[in-house]
Write a structure and sequence with these properties.
The complex is a heterodimer of chains A (659) and B (209). Chain A is an alpha+beta fold and 659 residues long. Chain A has a 5-stranded antiparallel sheet with strand order 9-8-12-11-10. In chain A, strands 14-16-17-19-18 form a 5-stranded mixed sheet. Chain A starts with 10 loop residues before the first strand and ends in a 10-residue tail after the last strand. Chain A is built from 16 helices and 19 strands. With 209 residues, chain B is of the alpha/beta class. Chain B folds into 2 domains: 123 residues, Rossmann fold (3-Layer(aba) Sandwich), CATH 3.40.50.2300; 66 residues, Arc Repressor Mutant, subunit A, CATH 1.10.10. The two termini of chain B are 28 Å apart. Classes of the chains: A alpha+beta (659), B alpha/beta (209). Chains A and B meet through helix 11 and helix 12 of A and helix 1 of B.
Chain lengths: 659, 209
């Protein structure tokens, strides 16, 4: 039995108790804060946070506990066995490590929480009682088993509560600091309650002095040092935690910002992508429409009954439609550049190429009738046309043209022209025949009389009795008839001169140009290439426009006729006008066979002809006309052809005009 | 029958040619006359003697060929020699088919014309003789009495006197008398001559009709 006197009554220093409570709350706050850090960290950092956190938390709890012990004053001096104190600190740190580990896991199942809280609670209780075992005082410590059990249960409950709180509060939220403060206050209070319950469980009975080896007394400054050390550790932990949290928050903020920007950019990209996709679809649709439109146009170009082509400004060819290709049987490659020239008729080639070169050089419209060879080797007539396309500055960008098949029209034209030519030739022959008949009759009558009378005279003279009266009569009639025949010829001459008597100033170049127009069909139909070399500064001549025109027509027609027999080789006709002193000369030169030099003078005789259809009046009438104008007409011939030339006296400027 | 010398008639609008031909023809002893146009020729009194026509193809108003046809239609059967300043073959053929003696182109050889004239005159002389003979026969035939003609027609067709007498209702002797008198009038020496004469008359009459 122990007497009541035997139990020492302890007293509490209330300031110390309050300080221990503050330390408990601070330690709780640190614990709650550190759980968040441990949770947020990974790998080695996590391990450091776990270790560091456990030291800080453990030190905090331990410091509160130790402080609480120091707050208890006994009437005897109390010393502390320091290795045991250190052991209690170690136990506190281990218990904290377990708590931190459990609370910082991703999930906390009820079993985990329970086992964690039991370990932690046991740890804390262990720490408490280990701490109490470090006390060296001249008394025996007795424990009330009920209160011990109560304190252990409180430690476990407190631990469970702390774990749940820590787990719930580990995420950083806007309200985490006040909530943590609140929780820390509750936890601090709970820890203190457990501690003081534990303290209450002990009663001290005075006894012999204890073994004081390794024991130290705790002076007041040491007491303060423990508090300071614990606070420093806690503050360091909290500061580190705060810095880490801030940097972590910064990182998180940066991360979030980055994420936001990534999201924004992703959204932008998405929108951009969509726009792009839409554009692609639209472009594809437009391209399809373009292709279809192009296909349609190509179909139109290839189907219309026209040969179509185009080319660059240099006059080569870079496109021709299917019509042309199928007509010639040549590929586009073969027709390209100057390849199209190969299908030209040999007789047209020079003219066409020259005309095209001129059009290209001058930028003028091109229009020629030309023969193109088809796949069957036959030639058909085409009307080829080309126009230049110019840009805004007037430069030629390209040439476009068509070839129109005019073979049928050409055939019809020829047939018509042939008929007309035949008709006009017949009319001309008839008129000529009438004229010649009239002349022949007129001249033949006196000649017949002369011959008859002459014969009569011869008979008279041959007879024995010549009647001189009758002879005289006959001879005088012969003279009369001779005179009469001459008069007929004079009358014809006068007939021609009657025209020239009304002569005017004639521009011989104009006469030539009119003839060229008049005989255009004749020239074309006979494949004759006509070249007019006209002296632009030609004086006028005095004469009858129509008669001079007939002279030129006659000479040109003779030239055409002279070249009819030329199968190959050129059929060229040159008309040249020039001034020769006070005369105007006109030359008509053909590339025909020429005429026999021995016939040179005969060709001007009436009724002399070398032509199957000729009547032999053309040159003789022409010469009469020219001579009646006071000029000369003559012909020369060599192997290169015949040259007919006439001269007419030029009018001086003073007597220009109507004469 | 008075013998008038043959005459060459020249129709040419050219008086000079006409005179020259006339002169040439006269130089060989023939008569010649010159007319300036077809009308002038038709208006003139043509001598009743053998003659021929030298005709220019080209005449004022009418062509020589048309004039040839007109003459034939008017039963003026004068032989024609054509002369032309510019004759051609179709014209020549047409003229010759229509009975022309010759077609000469001016100026012609004098002998050619004179030869043609001789031929033409000879042809005309023959024609005229034939026409004169027919005329004489007709005259003689017309001198026969009605009875005599009845007998002659039957004799020529080969009937015997007896048959004729029965047909015309008279005696054989009367027929014989008519017959001998008709032969005398017709100047037929024999029955055969009489037959020939009647045949020629009939053929001429047919031709004339």
């Amino acid at each position: 039995m122990i007497s009541a006197n035997a139990v020492m009554n302890g007293s509490y220093d209330h300031g110390e108790v309050a300080r221990s409570l503050v330390i408990a709350i601070a330690a709780s706050y640190a614990a709650l804060d550190l759980v968040g850090r441990v949770t947020a960290a990974r790998g080695r950092v996590r391990l450091s946070w776990l270790g560091g956190g456990a030291i800080a938390m453990g030190t905090g709890i331990w410091a509160m506990h130790f402080k609480g012990m120091l707050a208890f004053h006994l009437p005897v001096p109390v010393e502390y066995h320091w290795p045991t104190v250190l052991a209690s600190l170690l136990v506190a740190i281990l218990a904290s490590a377990v708590a931190l580990y459990v609370a910082s896991r991703q999930k906390m199942r009820p079993a985990d929480a329970l086992s964690g809280s039991i370990i932690m609670g046991a740890g804390i209780a262990g720490m408490h009682y280990t701490g109490m075992a470090a006390m060296r005082l001249p008394a025996v410590t007795r424990f009330s088993p009920l209160l011990v059990m109560c304190s252990i249960l409180l430690a476990i409950l407190f631990s469970l509560f702390a774990l749940l709180m820590a787990f719930g509060l580990r995420e950083e939220t806007r309200w985490s600091v006040p909530r943590r403060l609140g929780s820390a206050a509750v936890m601090g209070a709970a820890v203190s309650a457990m501690h003081y319950t534990g303290m209450a469980a002990a009663s001290f009975i005075p006894a012999s002095p204890p073994d004081l080896s390794n024991a130290v007394s705790v002076p007041p400054f040491a007491n303060f040092g423990v508090v300071m050390a614990a606070l420093i550790v806690l503050v360091t932990a909290l500061t580190t935690s705060s810095v880490d949290r801030r940097s972590r928050a910064e990182i998180q903020r940066i991360n979030q910002d980055l994420e936001r920007r990534v999201t924004e950019r992703t959204l932008q990209l998405e929108v951009f992508n969509q726009t792009l996709r839409k554009e692609i679809v639209e472009r594809e649709r437009a391209e399809e429409a373009l292709r279809r439109s192009e296909g349609y146009l190509r179909l139109v170009i290839d189907t219309i009954p026209q040969q179509i082509w185009s080319g660059p400004p240099d006059g080569s060819l870079d496109y021709c439609n299917a019509r042309w290709r199928s007509y010639t049987g040549l590929t586009e490659e073969e027709l390209r550049g100057a390849g199209w020239q190969r299908m030209l008729h040999p007789d047209d080639r020079e003219r066409v190429i020259q005309a095209w070169s001129e059009a290209v050089a001058n930028g003028t419209r091109y229009e020629q009738e030309e023969r193109h060879r088809g796949t069957d080797g036959l030639y058909r007539w085409f009307l080829a046309r080309g126009v230049p396309l110019r840009d805004s500055e007037g430069r030629i960008v390209s040439w476009y043209g068509t070839n129109t098949d005019i073979e049928d029209r050409k055939q019809a034209e020829w047939a018509l022209h042939e008929a007309q030519a035949g008709l006009s030739r017949a009319a001309r022959l008839t008129a000529m025949g009438d004229l010649v008949g009239a002349i022949a009759h007129e001249v033949n009558q006196p000649i017949a009389a002369i011959v008859t009378n002459g014969n009569f005279c011869l008979r008279q003279l041959a007879g024995a009795t010549a009647n001189s009266d009758k002879l005289r009569d006959a001879i005088s009639e012969i003279v009369n008839d001779g005179t009469r025949a001459s008069a007929v010829i004079s009358r014809i001459r006068a007939l021609l001169q009657k025209h020239t008597s009304r002569s005017v100033a004639v521009d011989i170049n104009q006469v030539i140009q009119e003839v060229v127009v008049l005989l255009r069909h004749e020239l074309g139909g006979s494949r004759v290439a006509l070249r007019a070399d006209l002296d632009g500064d030609l004086p006028r001549v005095s004469g009858d426009h129509v008669l001079l025109q007939q002279v030129v027509i006659n000479l040109v027609m003779n030239g055409i006729d002279a070249m009819r027999s030329i199968e190959h080789g050129p059929r060229q006709l040159l008309i040249k006008s020039a001034r020769d002193h006070d005369q105007v000369s006109v030359q008509v030169k053909d590339s025909g066979t020429g005429f026999d030099p021995q016939q040179a003078e005969h060709i001007f005789e009436p009724f002399f002809t070398t032509k199957p259809e000729g009547i032999g009046m053309g040159l003789s009438i022409s010469r009469s006309i020219v001579e009646s104008h006071g000029g000369r007409l003559w012909g020369e011939s060599n192997s290169m052809g015949a040259l007919f030339q006439f001269t007419l006296p030029a009018i001086c400027n003073s007597d220009d005009g109507v004469l | 029958m008075t013998k008038i010398p043959p005459i060459v008639l020249v129709v040419d609008d050219d008086p000079s040619v006409g005179r020259a031909i006339k002169r040439l023809v006269e130089s060989v002893g023939l008569q010649a006359a010159h007319f300036g146009s077809a009308q002038e020729f038709l208006r003139s009194e043509r001598p009743d003697t053998c003659s021929c026509l030298v005709l220019d193809v080209r005449l004022p108003g009418i062509s020589g060929l048309d004039f040839q046809r007109q003459l034939a239609e008017a039963n003026i059967n004068i032989p024609i020699i054509f002369i032309s300043a510019h004759g051609d073959i179709p014209m020549t053929v047409r003229a010759m088919k229509a009975g022309a003696v010759e077609f000469l182109t001016k100026p012609f050889r004098d002998q050619d014309l004179l030869d043609a004239v001789q031929i033409a005159l000879e042809r005309d002389r023959t024609r005229r003789e034939k026409e004169a003979e027919i005329a004489s026969l007709r005259q003689r035939y017309e001198s026969l009495s009605t009875r005599e003609r009845e007998v002659v027609v039957r004799v020529v067709s080969g009937m015997l006197n007896k048959q004729i007498a029965v047909e015309i209702g008279t005696t054989e002797n009367t027929v014989k008398a008519h017959r001998s008198r008709a032969m005398e009038k017709m100047q037929a020496p024999s029955l055969a001559d009489l037959v020939k004469m009647v045949e020629r008359l009939e053929s001429f009459a047919e031709k004339a009709s």
